[in-house]
Task: structure prediction
Amino acid sequence: MGPIRIREGFRDQILYVVPRPILERMSRHPLLYHLVPTDIGWYPNARYHYCERENGAPEHILILCMDGEGWYEIKGDRHPLRKNEAVIIPRNTPHVYGASEAAPWSIHWVHFVGASADYFVHHLPDDVHSLAVDPQTAADLDRLFRDCYESFLGSFVLQRMIYISQTLHHLLGSLFFNNRAFSPTLRTSRFHNIQETVDFLRQNLDRPISLDEMADHAGLSKSHFVRLFKEQTGYSPVDYFIHLKMQHACMLLSVTDKTNREIGLEVGYDDPYYFSRIFKKVIGISPSGYRSGLEQNQGHAPAIEARQAWR
Result:
């Protein structure tokens, strides 16, 4: 007798499959075109769970292991999948996966498609399909999955599908970009030092701060500090500090009647002409032009502000 294999039908399982005619019609909507789930579910203590797709699935697949363990096989290579780990299987990729017999997994899973879906999936390096998930992120993902299940109780109406799509976007964003066990910008052991330095910069916008002083505050060598800071923010420490100053200057131009000289002093520039040059270089428009744009738009910031609101 061969091994017991079950595709679905587990006690207390949750399973939703969006009817394909509804999916095809809704996927043309601008808020669903980029990312939409096609199938989603929760298989707790899924003893004997097994799934094989010789030609893959037409959708990308995410499996998140919340407890127990299992395995997946892609291109003939088998790998374990344990608690607080996830696997991403790209669409049209032949695969097999199943639960451990000794400690069957409990998994959330979702099939999804769309232009943003392709980006998320290919964010992993080539031939890498799994990633670790830190416990806090795993708890957040569990909540977001359950939010999706509850939303499906309202049937496959457009408003619910849009909400579920946005929730899935949040879920994938958390997995890849707010997951300390995976995200390169979060997993460094010195992350807190950099964040403390960012807070220090925010509290001292009214004065110049040298690179040496920043590195001393972080408790790092200057070269190490510069490398970690740029890894985590995408900016050099000095450029980041200038951007913080200009962001604050934008706020002052928006909500006060202070002169350029007064605003320049508040962000650490004694020379109002130098402040204006720096402002235009960073924001793309002079302080007076920025304020005029606010007035012309009846108090709404011009498009340039949206581009610069990077943090």
In short: The radius of gyration is 25 Å.
